[in-house]
Amino acid sequence: MLSHPADFPHVGSRAFVVGTAEPVTILRANADGSRMVRRDGTRLHPASRDASGNRTLPLSDLAPTEAEAFDTKPKPRRCAKGRAGR
Hints:
By secondary structure, this protein is mainly beta. The protein contains 1 helix and 5 strands; from the N terminus they run βββββα. A hairpin with a 5-residue loop joins strand 1 (14-17) and strand 2. The radius of gyration is 18 Å and the shape is elongated. The mean pLDDT is 78. Residues 37-86 are annotated as: Disordered.
């Protein structure tokens, strides 16, 4: 079942945790709307790991792409006016 990719947010699909873009795979859809996920990255700090590497997250904490997992709003540009003459 998990050997074939699925569309987000179905079981077997890849996702990224919002804020950290940690890659995960959705293992189970719970009745309350949350998802049980498997951590796929090896970039994890040993203190943040649990025994199985699985955890339950609300669907709102998951994004379908890495770019959407980060806040991608453009920052306003600052004007460099007046700095050239210094």
